[in-house]
Write a structure and sequence with these properties.
With 250 residues, this protein is mostly helical. Helix content is 80%, strand content 0%.
């Protein structure tokens, strides 16, 4: 079956209009706050020396960047885990018939979180390799595996590997369409917060960063990231419903 992206977008808008209070509450707690915490608490990454830099400068930058990642890896991991939990909560709310409210979705998501985290790590390896080798293969992997969360929730009991394989099976003959979805999500996640982050970095570099202004700018950037994340989650749910057999959940 070919996915209808226009219908998926319409479904996403309908769910947002109907349930925006619930979506804002879940996204605020599990997507916005972890993102804001990273922006406020993790030091700025080392700046690349630029295209004309020599080998020595690049070597210094790489060492500094690896050190920065290593020093903050636990915070990145914790924020990612909380964000995965938020996404899984929304999948449970809309795709698990046993979840009648947010409280039940939170409980169910907690039980499924280890499997979802493992499945996400399994996907991360080929996606990263593909992105480093050439960007398109990495995006293609992300597109074909974007339904692991919905499949894990709606077709339980699935283990992590089975959910990845199920996503690949569901998305057969839709690789290019879902590559486009993955690309748009990645671009939106980068560009929407970018103006606020650029102003923040400029103020910090000039030594004129007022704490209140920094908080407002970082909050706006985190809010943009949360909007993109929730939109992608809802689109994944809509696409899953199209490609799976029957209409599951609400």
């Amino acid at each position: 079956m070919k996915v209808d992206l226009g219908r998926a977008l319409a479904d996403m808008r309908m769910v947002w209009r109907r349930d925006r209070e619930i979506l804002i509450a879940v996204a605020g707690a599990f997507i916005f706050l972890p993102t804001l915490a990273l922006l406020l608490l993790v030091p700025e990454a080392p700046q690349s020396p630029g295209a004309g830099a020599g080998e020595a400068d690049m070597s210094i930058f790489i060492d500094a960047y690896v050190g920065w990642v290593s020093a903050n890896l636990r915070w990145f991991g914790l924020a990612a885990l909380v964000t995965l939990y938020g996404a899984l909560t929304l999948y449970c709310l809309y795709l698990d018939r046993q979840c009648e409210d947010v409280r039940m979705a939170l409980t169910r998501a907690l039980a499924l979180l280890p499997r979802y985290a493992l499945a996400s790590l399994i996907v991360l390896v080929p996606a990263t390799v593909g992105a480093l080798a050439f960007l398109v293969p990495g995006l293609y992997v992300l597109g074909r595996t974007m339904l692991i969360g919905p499949a894990l929730v709606a077709e339980k009991p699935l283990v992590a590997v089975a959910s990845v394989l199920r996503s690949v099976a569901l998305t057969r003959r839709n690789g290019l369409s879902l590559l486009a979805v993955a690309t748009l999500g990645l671009l939106a996640g980068q560009f929407l917060p970018a103006p606020f982050l650029a102003i923040d970095e400029g103020l910090r570099a000039a030594g004129a960063a007022n704490p209140i202004v920094v908080l407002l700018l970082d909050s706006a950037a985190a809010a943009m990231s949360a909007v993109v994340a929730v939109s992608i989650i809802l689109i994944r749910i809509a696409i899953y419903r199209q490609l799976s057999t029957g209409q599951l959940g609400r």
